[in-house]
Specification:
Layout lengths: L3 E6 L9 H10 L7 E5 L2 H9 L4 E5 L1
Antiparallel strand pairs: 1-2, 1-3
Helix pairs in contact: 1-2
């Protein structure tokens, strides 16, 4: 069974954040505070999470 990551947006990705970080949140599927998505655990997703680590909470499933 492949691992997945549960990603929750906990801080606004609009105000006082760089545009590329906002775009990264959108690419992960996060639009509003409180949105939760499940993504596969792979290096590209991990890199995206690292870029916006100050905006999200991550749980391994």
């Amino acid at each position: 069974m492949a691992q997945s990551l549960k990603i929750t947006l906990v801080h606004s990705a609009v105000a006082s954040v760089k545009k590329d970080q906002t775009a990264t949140c959108r690419a992960l599927g996060l639009r509003k505070i409180g949105d939760v998505v499940e993504q596969p655990d792979n290096p590209s997703i991990r890199g995206m999470i690292f870029k916006v680590k100050h905006l999200v909470d991550v749980e391994e499933n």
